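Hi R.,

Here's the chain you asked about this morning:
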Amino acid sequence: MAQQLLMPKATAVWLVDNTALSFEQIATFCKLHPLEVKAIADGESAQGIKGLDPIATGQLSRDEIVRAEGNPNHKLKISDPKVRVPESKRKGPRYTPVSKRQDRPNAILWLVRNHPELKDAQISRLVGTTKSTIEQIRERTHWNSANLTASDPVTLGLCSQIDLDLEVERASKGRPLPTAADLGATLEPAQETERFSYGYEREEEKEMDADAVFAKLKSLKSATPDEEEEKY
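And the predicted structure, written out as tokens:
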């Protein structure tokens, strides 16, 4: 694994202030553009960044800086780390603690039901199981099938939500989008909705009879005095 420079812009600030290296040499070492290094030197960029000494961090030696200052064509090389940390390469299924291994069948059942797009290898990576166990649970031939209860592996602590979402996203790539028939509910075509009957007919507005209206008003006025007399 190639070594990566820590805080490249802060390192560039220190090299600009403390060495006679060219802008191109600093830009190449810090993986910046020469114009960006020039802006740092002119005070137009990285004004609030404190310089980081690459010699103190062990990423550059004083001899390498002197050699580059004497030869403008020399490219700075990052120093080898004094302590090498081996890369962790995990192969095979995920390790599951003994206390949670009894929950794996329930998690497998949940994944099979809720995410049928997942492959056996993906389920194996998520909960740390074997393909034969997944096949037995999927075909209901597992010795404890009658007592299994589908449970979310994230809730059980067998995997993280990020890992689950990543595997689902990988399994969904390349799959055709669901059609309207697959989704079930669809909109009716406009031709059908235009012919839809609501079960009643709109009543036609009746023409108003002026004589009948005035006659009714006269009857109401004539009835009012009689009612007043009866009160007294």
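Confidence is low (pLDDT under 50) at residues 200-205.

Let me know if you need anything else.
M.
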